[in-house]
Amino acid sequence: MTTSWIVLDIEGTTSSTASVHVGLYAYARPRLGRWIDEHGDNPEVRAAVAQVGLPPGAATEEVVKVLHEWMDGDVKATPLKTLQGQIWAAGFAAGELTAHFFPDVPPALRAWRAAGRHLAVFSSGAVSSQRPWFRHGAEGDLSALIERHFDTVNAGPKREAASYARIAEALGDPGASGEPPLFLSDVPAELDAAAAAGWRTTGVRRPGEPSENADFGTHPVITSFEELR
Ligand SMILES: CSCCC(=O)C(=O)COP(=O)(O)O
Ligand SMILES: [Mg+2]
Prior knowledge:
- By secondary structure, the protein is α/β, with parallel strands linked by helices.
- The chain has helices spanning 17-28, 32-38, 43-51, 60-72, 78-93, 105-114, 127-135, 161-171, 188-196; strands at 5-8, 118-122, 148-150, 182-185, 200-204, 221-222.
- The chain folds into 2 domains: 5-16 and 100-228, Rossmann fold, CATH 3.40.50.1000; 20-93, Transcription Termination Factor Rho, Rna-binding Domain, Chain A, Domain 1 (Orthogonal Bundle).
- α5 packs parallel to α7 and α8 (161-171) crosses α9.
- It has a 6-stranded parallel β-sheet, with helices on both faces.
- Helices cover 42% and strands 10% of the residues.
- The chain has 9 helices and 6 strands, in the order βααααααβαβαβαββ.
- The protein is globular.
- The structure holds ligand L4RZE5RM and magnesium ion (MG).
- Residues 9-12, 20, 24, 76, 81, 88, 123-125, 129-130, 133, 158 line the site of ligand L4RZE5RM.
């Protein structure tokens, strides 16, 4: 393995889908309405509410109805992710949330950093929630291992090659090793987009996760980060 930058997806890759859908979604769901009402002077909140796409002046409960529908369908819409990210960041700060990582992940991240690899995250989850996620794992604070964070706001949609080109430019691709970044994800369409941007890719097929029966096509596949060490 000579790739300098390793870029990680979160849900289904470093962490279980249940930890996001049951843990985080359940925390954000009943708090969205009050968060919008109490942070109406926050420009990010105002912009997110406008991006939901309802007519100006729509009642908070109408906005929340759309956000809940997106959550039910696991639509990774940027305004939803922005609001969820703020609520989760507050939840982590209050000690009410804990992150989950598959057991192979913390030792692999430490080993990769010790070996001189650089680590970044590209997730649909907002950067505002990625940072506390890596800080509040049950296995301790992993946040210092992650040097760069990307989401659908600062990079773009995860299924578009242009997003990966943007990230590569931000990382200084091809980097010191001369190798393009390596992207690890449980979603074949994301890997396709990364490959189209010239990245190296590896699918992560974890037992019991939605990716268990996914068709990764020609992408190399692992079931644990240990297989990359
Ligand atoms: C604290 S990370 C939040 C994760 C999240 O909201 C999400 O949608 C994860 O999607 P991913 O792109 O990492 O599969
Ligand atoms: Mg994922």
